[in-house]
């Protein structure tokens, strides 16, 4: 079943790049941070590859102090 964060997590296996798109995303709590992090870990585990380069888009990202 697709997860709400899946459209923001992409893999380019040819270049071994995992992209996390946090653009215009609002991290309002530590629970949100943890849910996103856990989903990234699940997707990496499901990729069958242990080593990835990370590309992170932070354009317009908001991170509140409680996060």
H-E order: EEEHEE
Percent of sequence in beta strands: 25-35%
Classification by helices and strands: alpha/beta
Low-pLDDT runs of 5+ residues are none
Strand runs, count:
5
Query: How would you classify the quaternary structure?
Result: single chain
Helix content: 25-40%
Q: Roughly what is the average pLDDT, rounded to an integer?
A: 95
Whole-number radius of gyration? 12 Å
Strand order of the largest sheet: 1-2-4
Shape: globular
Explain how this protein is built.
- The protein has a domain of 38 residues.
- The chain is globular and about 35 Å long.
- The chain has one helix and five strands.
- The chain has 67 residues and is an alpha/beta fold.
- Strands 1-2-4 form a three-stranded mixed β-sheet, covered by helices on one side.
- The model has no long low-confidence stretch (mean pLDDT 95).
Give me some keywords for this one.
two-stranded parallel ribbon; alpha/beta; 5 strands; 67 residues
List the helices and strands and how they pair.
Elements: E1 9-12, E2 17-21, E3 26-27, H1 30-47, E4 53-57, E5 62-63
Parallel strand pairs: 2-4, 3-5
Antiparallel strand pairs: 1-2
Briefly say what this structure is.
This protein has 67 residues and is an alpha/beta fold.
């Amino acid at each position: 079943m697709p997860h709400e964060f899946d459209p923001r997590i992409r893999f380019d296996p040819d270049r071994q790049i995992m992209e996390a798109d946090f653009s215009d995303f609002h991290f309002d709590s530590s629970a949100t941070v943890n849910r996103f992090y856990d989903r990234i870990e699940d997707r990496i585990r499901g990729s069958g590859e242990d080593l990835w380069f990370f590309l992170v888009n932070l354009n317009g990202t908001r991170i509140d102090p409680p996060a």
